[in-house]
Amino acid sequence: MKIKLEMTSLVFPGVLSLLVVFAGVNTCFAQIDVHIHTATTNMESHVNGRTGHAFDDGQGRPDAGAQLYRRYCVGCHGPDGDGNGENAQWFDPTMGFEKPRDFTEAVFKCRSTPTGTLPTDEDLFDAITRGFVNTNMPSWRPLTEQERANLIAMVKSFSPRWEKEKSGAPITIPAETPATIDSILHGRDLFDKIQCWKCHGPEGHGDGPSAATLTDTKGNPIRPYDFATGVRFKCGATNQDLYRIFLTGLDGTPMPSFSDNIKPEEAWDLVHFLRTLQVSLKTPERSTFETWQHSHPGTLKPIGEDQPPGTGN
Question: Tens digit of pLDDT for each residue in 110-134?
Fold first, then answer.
């Protein structure tokens, strides 16, 4: 009964997090009889001065990362790491529940590296630690840093890309420019010009004219981010996290990299405008924008107004 509870609870992040905290990591491993199929057995990770091991860690633990994977990850990501675990059938993308990540392709949304490149071990560590908002992937902060490092090595072991390619070089994030009204207004112009509104909607509700047609690289429906109700982004919560998304894109999704479309300082303008769309947070940028709007009524044209006929709103 205990094993069944741990397996089914993977679908419910809140319950799972409580199980992790109260069960600890020294109890018997659920699903210990599941045979894991990997592309390699000698993968390591290197994070914060720690070396993570998927299998033999040289300290008498032949399955350092594999044991953790069997207990906490196999139910969703599957024994082959392809995202087809026992619980995956209950994840309905049409209802906003994204399918588990397919590790065999080594394509990851949240990275500090350019689009098309492998993430760094630190990127994967941050993802495991943070979890993914609006998904069934919880935060694994209750695990020790060494255990998380071992899990990263295990994730990498499912794809041969990690043996053939190196991680990309992290992009440089310059110092943030002041969030002035000029920056916000220019960011609004960019939001219109590069047609962010077609997916995210003119007011950032995730209801743009293209929203209903979007799919990920596996053909699953995927919803644009709703800035109006969202509190945390997929890959973090800070302005730097949002800036990074613009420059790296979210690989495997329709969200591209804009590194070739906007200048570094313009990315900060876009960040500042997007913060005005977060009505639930009442951000400083929104306060600045609202104050300006009250003194300049009727000045701004609606976003998307100049689109060619027949292309949307």
Answer: 999 999 999 999 999 999 999 998 8
Share of the chain above pLDDT 90, in %: 73
Q: Is there a single domain that holds both residue 6 and residue 140?
A: yes
The whole-number average pLDDT for the span 2-18 is 38
Running DSSP on this structure, what letter comes out for residue 11? G
Element (H, E) at 44: strand 44-47
Domain endpoint, select from 164, 189, 219:
164
Average pLDDT score over the chain:
87
For 197, the domain range is: 181-295
Say if residue 132 is in the same domain as residue 260: no
Contact (CB, 8 A) for 242 and 233: yes
How many angstroms from the chain centroid is the CA of residue 57?
29
Give Cα separations from 73 to 86, 102, 154, 194, 293 (angstroms). Answer: 11, 12, 10, 38, 49
- Tally of domains in the chain: 2
> Rounded to 5 degrees, what angle do the CA atoms 130, 136, 142 make?
40
Report yes or no on 308 lying in a domain.
no
Cβ count near 166 (within 10 Å): 10
Report whether 174 contacts 264 (CB < 8 A).
yes
Residue 301 lies in a domain: no
What is d(CA 170, CA 151) in angstroms, rounded to the nearest whole number? 22
Q: Give 233's strand partners.
A: 236
